[in-house]
Amino acid sequence: MSTFIAAFVVLMLFFLLMSVGYLIRKKVVQGSCGGLGALGIEKACDCDEPCDRRKAREAAKAEREEKLNKHRII
Q: 47 near 55, Cβ under 8 Å?
């Protein structure tokens, strides 16, 4: 039982240190290979025609940006 507790404490300490490092550096967590950027893929969805949910999300984002620009004070 003491081995399990020691392993659990070490694992939690590892997660704590990783989270502190993330909070300090403000950098996205990446894999050792550099993620999709290393493969030359700019986005996770590399489709020619995006799905309906993505189209709706992009339309809502564009509408929000348009409203913000329209009602901008400065």
A: no
Percent of the chain at pLDDT > 70 equals 70
Cβ 29 vs Cβ 22: under 8 Å: yes
Q: At 21, which helix (H) or strand (E)?
A: helix 2-25
Angstrom distance (rounded) from CA 74 to CA 66: 15
Structure tokens at 70: 């329209």
CA 37 from centroid of its chain's CA atoms: 13
Residues with Cβ within 8 Å of 51's Cβ and at least 6 positions away in sequence, in order, are 45
Structural contact between residues 45 and 54, judged by C-beta atoms closer than 8 angstroms: yes
Does the pTM exceed 0.85? Answer: no
Tell me the C-alpha distance between 51 and 61, whole Å.
Answer: 15
User: Residue with structure tokens 């986005």?
Assistant: 43
